[in-house]
Inverse folding.
């Protein structure tokens, strides 16, 4: 006879251990919750950050330029040090609001079977999924070689698999542009990025540092109008679009390719929210919340990409922390705090302004212009802080970039790494080649922050290469 399933009780249960969930757990503990549990379906915490090996995270929250894995390590440490318990390998399948005073029941599947949790409050932090080809209906055959950008990111950064060597990218959101650069650094030729909108959809800093830096062309007001190939993709047809975003006949251009990468939008992940009757925004699929991040089911809060797609992990963490705090306030009758929606929309998007330098030192992406003064000397305009002047001056004389990539250990597993300091932009490809010849000895226990290799800069300096996390997780 099967034994009765044991119920695990807690004060605040967080679903999802991405930056939103980890910060919610920290916030709940710091606001006085005794038992805080985070349920995560993957084998490790960190969420999407584990495969985002590029830098650009943490500038607001930690005042440091971190890679995704580095940010994830920090966020996880903060949650556990605050006293939250993170249970990986637990996929939540159902959630139900019980009678008044009896809390919320959550069911999760794990390798050891079904488990039931009972919590006073729940914070949803389930992230998002990508829009697929089916969702945007591109005409043509259905050959192999069409992927979403997140899948490609996982292939290249975690599984060491290149999807193709001549690539077309549809969609110029940040994910698409970041993958255009990553694939280029890994030796692929990105033929073009096509964007249906009149301007790039992502941040100006990514147009500058991911496309312009590598000479990757972008065609705005264009879309893929046909996919060509029987079994494997051979080419795509790209057409200009009219005001109604329909392809204009006669404007077709053929681009040969062996991979088409779709970066055409993210959809909040909310199947679990629906099992508890939480109302979703019919347009975005995000959870609808009040200003306290509480959904219309009492005691269920929501944060991060499952509420609304957000550009910056830093703001996701900030919001998660607030959701965790408010979940505790809900339980104790304390005062809730409101979320300031404008926190997420301050960064410049679209094309950089011509004849300016896009400062990429922080997400603001200031457009810095060098101006000649009447006395013949030069000054800079457009920078919100003094660091922009140094950056613009360096861009004019000797541009430098942080290299973020992976190195292999002896078993072929990938470890996400970055250079200890920016290196000469012209040395990026040489440095990647240098790293291909080096393997990391896994016998030495690697920790985040360890130097695992060296690359040579333009002036011959040996630059340390630093591990972002102990190792890439096996399954994400
Ligand atoms: C390619 C890419 C590049 C980016 N670049 C940057 C950048 O340079 N700088 C920056 O600041 N931000 C960047 N972002 C944005 C930022 O990373 C995200 O906004 C942030 O990670 C979202 O955090 P989250 O906690 O909401 O979701 P996620 O990180 O997606 O975490 C959600 C977690 O929930 C788990 N989960 C889902 N369903 C279940 C379930 N049923 N049961 C249990 N667990 C579940 C998932 O496994 C996952 O771990 C980027 C995002 C992407 C996709
Ligand atoms: S000038 Fe200052 S505020 Fe503007 S992008 Fe650069 S670092 Fe950020």
């Amino acid at each position: 006879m099967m034994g009765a399933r044991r119920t695990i009780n807690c004060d605040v249960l967080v679903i999802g251990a991405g930056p939103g969930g980890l910060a919610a757990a920290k916030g709940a503990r710091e606001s006085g919750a005794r038992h805080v549990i985070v349920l995560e379906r993957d084998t490790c915490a960190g969420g999407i950050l584990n495969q985002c090996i590029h830098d650009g995270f943490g500038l607001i929250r930690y005042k440091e330029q971190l890679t995704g894995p580095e940010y994830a390590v920090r966020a996880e440490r903060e949650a556990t040090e605050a006293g939250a318990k993170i249970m990986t390998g637990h996929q939540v399948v159902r959630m139900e609001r019980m009678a008044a005073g009896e809390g919320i029941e959550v069911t999760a599947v794990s390798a050891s079977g079904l488990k039931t949790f009972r919590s006073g409050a729940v914070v949803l932090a389930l992230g998002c999924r990508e829009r697929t080809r089916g969702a945007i209906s591109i005409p043509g055959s259905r050959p192999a070689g069409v992927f979403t950008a997140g899948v490609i990111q996982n292939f290249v950064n975690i599984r060491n698999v290149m999807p193709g060597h001549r690539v077309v990218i549809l969609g110029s959101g940040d994910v698409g542009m970041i993958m255009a650069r990553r694939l280029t650094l890994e030796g692929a030729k990105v033929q073009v990025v096509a964007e249906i909108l009149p301007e790039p959809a992502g941040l100006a800093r990514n147009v500058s540092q991911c496309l312009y830096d590598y000479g990757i062309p972008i065609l705005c007001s264009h879309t893929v109008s046909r996919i060509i190939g029987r079994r494997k993709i051979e080419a795509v047809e790209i057409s200009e679009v009219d005001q109604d975003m329909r392809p204009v006949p006669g404007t077709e251009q053929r681009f040969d390719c062996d991979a088409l990468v779709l970066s055409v939008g993210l959809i909040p992940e909310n199947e679990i929210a629906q099992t508890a009757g939480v109302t979703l925004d019919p347009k975005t699929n995000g959870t609808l919340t009040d200003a306290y991040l509480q959904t219309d089911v009492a005691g269920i809060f929501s944060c991060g990409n499952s509420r609304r797609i957000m550009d910056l992990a830093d703001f996701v963490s900030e919001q998660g922390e607030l959701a965790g705090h408010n979940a505790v306030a809900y339980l104790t009758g304390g005062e809730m705090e409101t979320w300031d929606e404008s926190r997420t929309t301050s960064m410049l998007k679209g094309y950089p302004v011509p004849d300016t330098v896009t400062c990429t030192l922080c997400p603001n992406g200031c457009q810095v212009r060098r101006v000649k003064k009447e006395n013949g000397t030069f000054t800079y305009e457009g920078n919100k802080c003094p660091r922009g002047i140094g950056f613009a001056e360096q861009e004019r004389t000797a541009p430098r970039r942080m290299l973020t990539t992976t190195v292999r250990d002896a078993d072929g597993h990938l470890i996400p790494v970055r250079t200890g300091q920016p290196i000469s932009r012209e040395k990026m490809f040489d440095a990647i080649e240098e790293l291909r010849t080096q393997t990391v000895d896994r016998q030495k226990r690697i920790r985040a922050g360890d130097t695992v290799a060296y690359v040579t800069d333009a002036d011959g300096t040996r630059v340390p290469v630093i591990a972002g996390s102990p190792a890439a997780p096996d399954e994400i």
